[in-house]
UniProtKB/TrEMBL annotation:
PROSITE patterns: BTB (PS50097). Gene3D superfamilies: Potassium Channel Kv1.1, Chain A. It comes from the Eukaryota. This is BTB domain-containing protein. It comes from Dentipellis fragilis. Residues 44-109 form the BTB domain.
């Protein structure tokens, strides 16, 4: 046989690599499982509901996940197909796309090809949640680590700021505990980028001779780094500034950089602390191998609410009557005369029947001895206990917005938007106290308080008393609904 450029004899053909028929057969099975099983949902025996999506899946494949095994074993099978619900309300890091990637990985590793820098963290969270997919976790973690760049650093710093430092991680509950050991690894990666990599990229480690001749590039990089440091959470700010690895020149240069960053933070750019944060710099420790620059913080001492309660103001009381102190099943009785129409005591009945997978609390308004009541609100709970949606006199709202922690001073402060007497929105905040009491504020106005009791009354056993200093009935309804949501969350550690 003659070949252009080279002559082959019958014994000199290039070797042919044959793929094992076992490997080919296994790949065909996995491909069929993924395409026909996961993507098409053929011959499914399990329906999985998550977010707003439903998946037609197969219990044998899902058994690869310890989390899903638990759900399947604890969810009764009423018909030919098993139905399971995955509640991700408390796991915001698990994105819809990330969960789909992790589910698909149970069927085939082809899901790895769907990973991108912008969905890797959601996929990592989903893989950690479902369990049993260590390779996907490592693959997604590596994609996360590589996605930490100047363009994404602010988002990653926000993420890292929610993770407790390693020395206190065992004693603090992180909102990102779903990531397990990857949470601390990602936090370390973000700090490494902030402290070492970023100053190097911005050419701040040691200015060259040409840079010293023209300071424009150095100044531009310094301004970029200042902007980033002015926004980071305080713990990360302190760790970075004091780290011996944070090299941006001499100790004097680092001290000046820290002072400039603190000046920016004092103007309110810093996230989370704002004007309540005071930072002081001092020298020392440079000769002992530590940092020569130190950062401290002192919170300003001021009362949270600038208001002195006048006990002489007229107020009204509501008793919370319940056999077992259940915030979702009781009667709120307006014990003294109604300030609205003088019809005497009225009550709001909270009733919650237990149903599988979803529970609805109905709130019915009763007047005097009237037997027939008016339904004024419904609360639909997810998976019998988690916050879902509420409808209050025709207005539908997420229950999470009725106990909103965003922008509040602590987790014990939960806000909602109520209705003022003139119909305009009124931002109110329930403040939970250690003894089970609550206070309701709107700006500097003290509106109501609740204290737990266990007293026999003419209406039944009172589990609590709410005093309120306003006359509007709509606000009263919104107040008792949000109070009961707060009490339920605290009782169940939600």
């Amino acid at each position: 046989m003659r070949k252009v450029g080279r002559t082959y004899t019958s014994n000199s053909f290039p070797p042919v690599t044959l793929r094992s028929p076992y490997i080919i057969h296994n790949e065909e099975i996995v491909s069929n499982l993924y395409n026909m099983g996961f993507q098409s949902g053929n011959y499914a025996d399990t329906i999985l509901h998550v977010h707003q999506n439903s998946y037609r899946l197969h219990a044998l494949i899902l058994s690869r996940s310890p989390y899903l095994v638990h759900l399947m074993s604890t969810s009764p099978q009423t018909g030919g197909q098993r139905v399971i619900y995955v509640d991700l309300e408390r796991e915001p890091e698990v994105t819809q796309e990330g969960f789909a990637i992790a589910l698909g990985y149970l069927y085939s590793s082809v899901s790895l090809s769907l990973l991108r820098p912008d969905n890797a963290r959601g996929a990592l969270a989903a893989a950690c949640l479902l369990g049993g997919m260590e390779y996907l976790c490592e693959y997604a973690y590596d994609a996360c680590r590589q996605s930490i760049r100047l363009e994404t650093i602010h988002g990653w710093l926000d993420f890292a700021g929610t993770i407790p430092i390693e020395s206190t991680a065992s004693s603090e509950l992180s909102t990102l505990s779903i990531f397990g050991r990857y949470a601390q690894r990602l936090r370390d990666d973000v700090l490494q980028y902030l402290i070492v990599t970023l100053p190097s990229i911005l050419e701040l480690h040691a200015p060259s001779t040409s840079q010293r001749a023209s300071q424009a590039p150095v100044q531009s990089g310094r301004d970029t780094l200042l902007d980033i440091f002015s926004r980071v959470p305080f713990d990360i700010f302190k760790t970075a500034i004091e780290s011996p690895a944070f090299q941006i020149g001499t100790d004097q240069a680092r001290f000046k950089f820290a002072k400039d960053a603190i000046d920016l933070r004092k103007r309110g750019i810093a996230r989370g602390t704002g004007a309540e944060e005071t930072v002081v710099l001092a020298f020392g420790g440079g000769n002992t191998g530590g940092s020569a620059v130190h950062v401290t913080r002192k919170l300003r001492k001021r009362p949270l609410w600038k208001y002195t309660l006048n006990t002489q103001r007229p107020y009204w009381e509501a008793l919370f009557i319940s056999a077992n102190d259940d915030p979702r099943d009781h009667i709120a009785v307006m014990a003294n005369a109604s300030p609205v129409d003088g019809m005497g005591p009225r009550c709001y009945v909270f009733h919650t029947p237990n149903n599988h997978m979803q529970t609805r609390t109905t709130v019915t308004q009763m007047r005097g001895q009237t037997e027939a009541g008016l339904e004024v609100a419904t609360l639909d709970w997810l998976l019998t206990r988690f916050l879902g949606t509420a409808n209050i006199r025709g207005r539908t709202v997420l229950m999470a917005d009725l106990a909103d922690r965003h922008g509040t001073a602590s987790d014990a402060h939960r806000s909602f938007t109520g209705t003022s007497p003139d119909g305009s929105p009124l931002r109110c905040t329930w403040v939970g106290l250690h003894d089970g009491s609550y206070q309701l504020w709107s700006s500097d106005n003290y509106l109501a308080d609740f204290r737990p009791t266990n007293e026999h009354t003419d209406f039944g056993t009172s589990r609590g008393t709410m005093r309120y200093w306003f006359k509007d009935e709509q606000l009263f309804l919104e107040a008792i609904i949000t109070l009961n949501i707060n009490r339920w969350m605290d009782m169940n550690e939600l």
